[in-house]
Specification:
There is one protein chain. By secondary structure, the protein is α+β, with helices and mostly antiparallel strands. It folds into 3 domains: 120 residues, Zincin-like; 220 residues, Immunoglobulin-like; 123 residues, Orthogonal Bundle (Neutral Protease, domain 2). It is built from 8 helices and 24 strands. The strands form 6 sheets. Strands 6-5-9-3-2-13-16-15 form an 8-stranded mixed beta sheet, with no helix packed on it. About 11% of the residues have low confidence.
């Protein structure tokens, strides 16, 4: 998530010329998209033209459509999604460790006039333990039609946000759960005192366009989910909306069709993601595409009419420059594509492979782009098992943002650390230590700056060569997995050849800021 802007010293957007060719195209027109090949041109055709796709489309209408086959339950590709779900100690009312989600297939149809979402969801899951029922999070604003387990209709009941599926399961058995539902989604209150967001989940604009940000929770506002960070899964997301709107989501765009006044897009995210890293938006978008210096497909999705607020050509060039810098530090980018989705928000979120950003001067700045891209190693490739360790994501992303800023500005990284340290004690006093924060203060400055200052101290203890090697190796030690406090502290101590627990404890659990 984007950090607290008041401490972003010297942030600026470069106006350097793009280092890669960029072509823009209106997402409101039929476009042929070749998977993994950017820089395609616009295709011609009217509003009822079916366009080039990479998969055979189903019947298109303002209702969910099925565009692909599900993986088999024994498909080895699902093994990367096997998790050990844990009840979150910070927000225990959300998430249910009885099941381990492996793959979500979401077919969504959004009616912007009626503010109505109609959905068909298929979840491939593993039973995490023996149980008489399965439980998922789903907003009571959404009405469930039918639930089927392995093809058979099964009874269910609703208790608040809990969807209880009354069917016995045995530990480690895998199942297919199908849910049909509809309704007018409502965002949920965010447990924070920050000024840039107060709700999470499915958000509807005055024009009926939609977007989502949902850290720490809120995915359950629009689909049935184990909404906690220890449970990762892969995703296929299909979105149908009235033209000229288009649906945007995580991963690779596999197909886009237009028929009978409805646009349907199909997206696939092959690497497991936690629910807070999933994004969906609908609206009229201009999309500009490029390829990074290292071959990563890049895209910038800007709402039509907001081109004056977001310079896609300059942004793609800055993203390429920042990504190249991060890949030097962290290794190859670990996902199939990298998009930037701009929405009507004042915040930003490292949603996996499709970063969701507000359209403010701060959230469109290059340091913020670097911060959110850095999360794709520290946060997305490896993330926290529980929300107690949000610092693990934000501390390193903030430190990398600071290192980038110092490389661009007329000040040194130590000077920036001194500046950040001025306000860190008050942040600790207001919200608590970064690894033991007040649950009502999610995402406050302590999660960002305490961790960044700690990493700077550890860098001084280890020296640059060892420090940067471990920064690079840690995310790949548990690819697409999660870790808790003891896991990261133990790993860093072992790899560093010295006990670093006192440093971690002082910065992350201490009531008073350590002396520097």
């Amino acid at each position: 998530m984007t950090g607290v802007s008041r401490l972003l010293a010297g942030a600026r957007c470069s106006t350097s010329e793009p280092v890669v060719e960029v072509r823009a195209k209106r997402a409101t027109r039929p476009v042929g998209l070749a998977l993994l090949l950017a820089l395609t041109g616009c295709s011609a055709g009217g509003p009822d033209t079916e366009v080039e796709v990479l998969a055979e489309p189903g019947q298109v209408g303002l209702a969910p459509v099925s565009l692909g086959e599900l993986p088999a339950l024994d498909d080895p590709a699902l093994d990367a999604s096997v998790s050990r779900p844990r009840r979150d100690p910070v927000y225990p009312g959300v998430g249910h460790p009885v099941l381990d989600a492996l793959h979500y297939d979401l077919d969504l149809a959004w009616d912007p006039d009626e503010r109505l979402l109609t959905a068909e969801q298929t979840l491939l899951l593993r039973a995490a333990r023996d149980s008489d029922r399965l439980v998922l999070d789903l907003s009571p604003a959404l009405e469930v039609g039918t639930v089927r387990l392995d093809g058979e209709e099964v009874p269910f009941d609703r208790r608040g946000q809990d969807l209880r599926v009354e069917a016995a399961v045995a530990k480690d058995d895998r199942h297919v759960l199908q849910i049909s539902y509809s309704g007018s989604p409502e965002p949920v209150a965010a447990p924070t005192t920050r000024g840039d967001f107060s709700t999470n989940g499915w958000t509807v604009t005055e024009d009926g366009d939609t977007w989502t940000m949902q850290e720490p929770t809120g995915a359950y506002s629009w689909y049935a989910v184990d909404d906690q960070p220890s449970d990762k899964a892969t995703y296929d997301i299909t979105v149908s909306v009235p033209s000229p709107r288009v649906g945007v989501a995580n991963g690779q765009l596999l197909s886009r069709t237009e028929s009978d006044g409805v646009t349907t897009t199909r997206w696939s995210m092959a690497q497991p993601a936690a629910s807070y890293l999933v994004t969906v938006a609908t609206g009229e978008y201009d999309v500009s595409e490029a390829v990074s210096s290292s071959g990563v497909p890049l895209s910038y999705w800007v709402p039509v009419g907001d081109e004056g607020r977001v310079d896609a050509a300059a942004g793609l060039a800055e993203a390429d420059r920042g990504l190249a810098w991060l890949e030097e530090k962290l290794g190859p980018y670990p996902f199939d594509a990298l998009g930037f989705l701009f929405v009507d928000s004042e915040s930003g979120m490292e949603t996996q492979s499709m970063i969701t950003l507000g359209m403010t001067e701060y959230t469109t700045s290059t340091p913020v782009l670097v911060h959110e891209m850095a999360h794709h190693w520290w946060g997305d490739l490896i993330g926290p098992t529980t929300w107690r360790d949000l610092w693990m994501n934000e501390g390193m992303a903030m430190y990398l943002q600071g290192a980038w800023m110092a490389s661009e500005e007329p000040y040194t990284l130590p000077q920036l650390m001194d500046y950040w340290a001025q306000d860190e004690p008050q942040m600790r006093a207001d919200a608590g230590p970064a690894a033991d924060y007040d649950p009502a203060t999610f995402g406050e400055g302590n999660a960002y700056y305490s961790g960044a200052l700690m990493w700077h101290e550890i860098r001084g203890l280890l020296g640059d060569e060892l420090f940067w090697r471990l920064v690079r190796e840690w995310p790949r030690s548990l690819p697409y997995g999660t870790s808790d406090y003891d896991g990261i502290v133990g790993w860093w101590s072992r790899e560093a050849g010295r006990d670093l627990a006192p440093v971690f404890d002082a910065w992350l659990r201490g009531e008073v800021s350590p002396a520097r």
